[in-house]
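# nightly structure sweep
# worker-07 picked up a monomer target from the shared queue
# config: single-sequence mode, recycle default, output format = structure tokens
# input follows
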Amino acid sequence: MSAKSSQIEMAERLNRNLGLLQAGSKVTIDITTPAGQKSKHRTTFIGYLPKQYILIQYPDSSKLGNFGQYLKQGAGVTVRGLIEGHEGAVVAFVSTIMQTLQIPSRIIVLSFPQSVILQSLRSSMRIDTDIVTKVKVGNEYWQASMMDVSVSGCQVFIGEGEKLVLASDKKIELVIEDFQGLSNLNLTAELCNNKQVANGISLGLKFLPESKEAVVKLMHHAVTYEGTETS
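# output follows
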């Protein structure tokens, strides 16, 4: 295959993957500050012109806080969005802000990405999160935070959980009372590993088959999760 043919094929693949995002689709942009703070914000995908630029709506300023100062020309962002009609699929790409517009509304102009990833949530994709949850072991409940999630399992942190004694075959229930409008979600898992960390314990969990549908629903919400974390 000639270099020219390869470039044409790559351009067609980029357009095909990016074209799966419909105008008006909800997407999430990841912002990282020079100090290592990360923030995720929901916004709307407007459209794109092949090989030139991508347009997205400027996120809600009231939720941006101090992160708004980093949405400027030359800043790098990661964009992720769910694909309608493709259950459990995500489009993701890394881009750079070319400029922001004020008219006809606040719009961010992004450079056209060099690659666009199409990934199934049903694969090994793992998403960083900070989801408040309760861990039920036997008849006891422990307040916890889900630090990341994939279709197969998750990592959970329990503050001051040093007194929690777990067997490797112990069944564990996770109760998420409210996450981005998703309420009263119950997941079951088994313990894969646990380790003592600063101020608590970290659990590596594997989801059980009966939780498959609920996990996919949680993953959908996690993709467009809004929040801030410090590295």
